Amino acid sequence: QVQLVESGGGLVQPGGSLRLSCAASGSIFSPNTMGWYRQAPGKERELVAIITSGGSTNYADSVKGRFTISRDNAKNTVSMQMTTLKPGDTAVYYCRLTVANRAYWGKGTLVTVSS
Fold it and tell me: In the Cβ-directed half-sphere of 16, how many Cα atoms lie within 13 Å?
């Protein structure tokens, strides 16, 4: 069974930076897609950024130019560097792995952007 463990969440002031990491373990093979989704209170979960095992990326318009996703295929880890954070970025961020038509989710890590 695949397990995903996120880390790096916390409290940061507007304009600050934070780096999220996710480590995947289990039966993982290529091709696959890893990425980050987020869910704010009272809102639906939304895509933030994804990256395929081939290295192609896709970002939500709201984070383009501010967030950068990367991965290490050998270690099955994915990271996301978040800069110029805004209060609207406050949410629980979930790591997701999609492989063989299955989606696996981490438990989430809370990011709070507030002064």
Answer: 15
